[in-house]
Design brief:
With 93 residues, the chain is α+β, with helices and mostly antiparallel strands. 27% of the residues lie in helices and 32% in strands.
């Protein structure tokens, strides 16, 4: 699983529309509206680097209202929460 953090600045009054468009895309796990330099932060989770490239360059870049973006590719998760365990509930090994 490849995880990326997408930092977005949106055009004035486009934040909600951009957030809605992002949440409709496969591979976009979460979208947060935030205060500060950026307007939105999206968490992307896909199966491969190629899938990430397609999502960012072919799907997300087509969304109207995005002024600037920065994509951070995650190497390793450091968390108190065991996401693998959460997502495997009810699955037999």
């Amino acid at each position: 699983m490849v995880t990326a953090i997408l930092l977005l600045e949106t055009d004035r009054n486009a934040t909600n529309a951009v957030a809605d468009a992002l949440t409709a895309l496969d591979g976009v796990a979460e979208v947060h509206s935030v205060a500060g330099r950026y307007d939105l932060v999206a968490i992307l989770r896909v199966r491969s680097n190629d899938a990430l490239a397609t999502l960012v360059t072919e799907r997300i870049r087509q969304i109207d209202g995005i002024a600037r973006s920065e994509t951070l590719i995650g190497f390793r998760v450091h968390s108190r929460y065991d996401l693998d365990r959460m997502f495997s509930v009810g699955m037999d090994e």
